[in-house]
Amino acid sequence: MKKILVCEDEATIRDFVVINLTRAGYDVIEAENGDEALAKYEECNGDLDVAILDVMMPGKDGFAVCKELRARNGGIGIIMLTARTQEMDKVTGLMLGADDYVTKPFSPSELVARVDALYRRVMLARANIESNFKEEIRSGDFVLNLRNRTLLKNGKTIELTQVEFQIMEYFFSNPGQALGRTDILNHVWGEQYVGEEKIVDVNIRRLRMKVEDEPGNPKYIITVWGLGYKWDA
After folding, report:
1. Above pLDDT 90, what percent of the chain?
2. Residue 176 phi, psi dihedral angles, 5° rounding
3. Of 127, 157, 185, which residue sits at a domain end?
4. In terms of residue numbers, what domain contains 149?
5. What is the separation of C-alpha 16 from the centre of its chain, rounded to a whole number of angstroms?
6. I need a labelling partner for 165 at 20 to 30 A (CA). Which of 86, 127, 139, 189 fits?
7. Cα separation of 10 and 22, whole Å?
8. Per-residue pLDDT tens for 140-150?
């Protein structure tokens, strides 16, 4: 069963989300605040595929829950629910390790489409791990391990979210090649993704903080003005 955690303090919105995800075939676990969400995560021993977290909640907000979930489970898919007027919430959530965001108000079809796409990526990542891939891609000082989905830089592990890993895999498979934002978006999030291209830029910023010696002066993930990015190692 596809298991998903929904953390939303407004009961009407939570019920709306739960009903539509249940209809779409998900086993939904509900939480009305951040502390309850983390407690539910522990109760099921981390056996969750996706978490939907509202940003604005009393007590422990969605950002704090996102950060803790990502620290405990690098493979779980995380979607943030943000208000349409709170642009920085989208960026902040992605920088803390969220995979995607959905702005309120949203339609049932949009929410389910985003969840389905993220769930497929989570399952693909697990399938690759369980198939005991032994392949590695080397690029300069970096080694991308396709079996355990980790990145090494000079022998030191760099923790990646699954979205970050997919971007790095795309870079490593196309070294020195300029990749457009649309190309990266389609490759990682899928051609049916209905979000904004800025999600690519935020994830690139987060990756630079992890792989670059000087994130403000990148030498590995290079901006190709007017197009996108390229990997140069």
Report:
1. 61
2. 75, 0
3. 127
4. 133-231
5. 23
6. 86
7. 18
8. 999 998 777 78
What angle in degrees, to the nearest 10, is found between the helix axes of 162-173 and 108-130? 70
Q: Are residues 22 and 69 in the same domain?
A: yes
Radius of gyration of the chain (CA): 18
| Secondary structure of the chain in HEC code, one letter for each residue | CEEEEEECCCHHHHHHHHHHHHHCCEEEEEECCHHHHHHHHHHCCCCCCEEEEECCCCCCCHHHHHHHHHHHCCCCEEEEEEECCCHHHHHHHHHCCCCEEEEECCCHHHHHHHHHHHHHHHHHHHHHHHCCCCCEEEECCEEEECCCCEEEECCEEECCCHHHHHHHHHHHHCCCCCEEHHHHHHHHHCCCCCCCCHHHHHHHHHHHHHHCCCCCCCCCEEEECCCEEEECC
pLDDT at 123 over 60: yes
The pLDDT value given to residue 85:
67
Q: Is the pTM of this model over 0.85?
A: no
* Contact partners, residue 206, CB within 8 Å, separation at least 6: 94, 95, 164
User: Looking up tokens 């993220």, which residue turns up?
Assistant: 118
Together in a domain, 65 and 151: no
Q: Do 44 and 18 belong together in one domain?
A: yes
How many CB atoms sit inside 10 A of residue 138's CB? 11
Give the separation between CA 221 and CA 74, rounded to whole angstroms.
22
Token pair listed for 209: 């903080």
200 and 123 housed in the same domain: no
How far apart CA 212 and CA 136 sit, in angstroms, is: 20
- How does strand 2-7 pair with strand 26-31? parallel
Number of Cβ within 10 Å of residue 118's Cβ equals 26
